[in-house]
TrEMBL record:
Similarity comment text for this entry: Belongs to the ROK (NagC/XylR) family.
InterPro entries: ATPase_NBD, ROK, ROK_cs
A Pfam family this chain is assigned to: ROK
Protein name: ROK family protein
Length: 317
């Protein structure tokens, strides 16, 4: 990585975060606004402009040589547009064009949020030193990204590695994406909680029915909660093994809210992976928790911008 300074945006359904990041991955300035996700597209863009305006007020702004954007998806990096599922006002929204207009035509690199987190984990986190990796976000949804031959592999539109929509149950429940039995339909936080509730688990006196509450119940030995996490773990294992078999990754990094469940998730995940990843070239595959935390989207967006600046022909870190 060069020692250049870049701007970064991390755009999700809850918040729009921005930062100035140096070539060592250090965040030197930051700004944030809530995402007005249920308002019209221009209202969302105004929040982006406010974040950029706050960053531009920093004396460091003039050193920024590029801007990276990690956005909830789908994104289309080839067209510079975004259509986040959780931001209905943005459909084929020309985000790259609009951001360039605000920043004085600063070079912009757009990638999906799962790819951004992958870039961060490969640059500074749990996948550092691995040339072939899958990094996953298991939270409200399930996303991911790939590093192949030492480089980030976002694909033509910026969505490569979207493991959440690999089908692992051919006769499974319909997924909002239109397919059936997707990893996300089984392993995302809301679906872990849904399965536990359907199986008879009930929240405690506080009424918390989240996946985190199911994880706590599983740690306490509740058999229905344990079964829900084991089912999620098997779905993740099947998706990870399929990906490893296809492109020969040697590490899978799991982050996001569900990834914080610890051994409740990782113990059955590793057991199931041993059943699914059976061919000689994937048996050494390891699964580890993510390390980068809440700044991963910003650091990853910066990594992609720095890599593109260093090599305009490839998005690699």
């Amino acid at each position: 990585m060069q020692t250049d300074l870049v701007a970064a945006l991390d755009i999700g359904g809850t918040k729009i975060a921005g930062a100035l990041v140096d070539g060592h991955g250090r965040i030197l300035a930051r700004a944030q606004r809530p995402t007005p996700a249920q308002e019209d597209g221009e209202s969302v863009m105004r929040a982006v402009e406010e974040v950029l305006g706050e960053l531009a007020a920093s004396p460091l702004w003039t050193r920024a040589c590029a801007l990276g954007i990690g956005s909830a998806g789908p994104v289309d990096a080839s067209a510079g547009t975004v259509s986040p599922v959780n931001v209905p006002g943005w459909r084929d929204f020309p985000l790259v064009e609009r951001v360039r207009a605000v920043t004085g035509d600063l070079p912009v690199e757009l990638i999906g949020d799962g790819v951004a987190i992958t870039a961060a984990e490969h640059w500074q986190g749990a996948a550092r030193g691995h040339d072939n990796a899958l990094c996953m976000v298991v939270s409200t949804g399930v996303g991911g990204g790939l590093v192949l031959d030492g480089r980030l592999h976002p694909g033509p539109t910026g969505n490569a590695g979207h493991i959440g929509h690999i089908s692992v149950d051919l006769d499974g429940d319909p997924c909002p994406c239109g397919a059936r039995g997707c990893v996300e339909r089984i392993a995302s936080g809301p679906n872990i909680a849904r399965r536990a509730l359907d199986g008879g688990w009930r929240p405690g006196p506080d009424g918390d029915a989240s996946a985190a509450a199911v994880a706590a119940a599983a740690r306490a030995g509740d058999p229905v909660a344990v079964a829900s996490f084991e089912r999620a773990a098997r779905a993740l294992a099947a998706g990870i093994a399929a990906t490893a078999t296809l492109v020969e990754i040697d590490i899978a990094v799991v982050g996001g809210g569900v990834g914080k469940a610890g051994d409740v998730l990782f113990a059955p995940l590793r057991r199931a992976l041993a059943e699914y990843a059976t061919l000689s070239f994937v048996r050494g595959l390891t699964v580890v928790p993510a390390r980068m935390g809440t700044d991963a989207g910003l650091v990853g967006a910066a990594a992609a911008a720095l890599a593109r600046r260093a090599d305009p022909t490839a998005a690699g870190v």
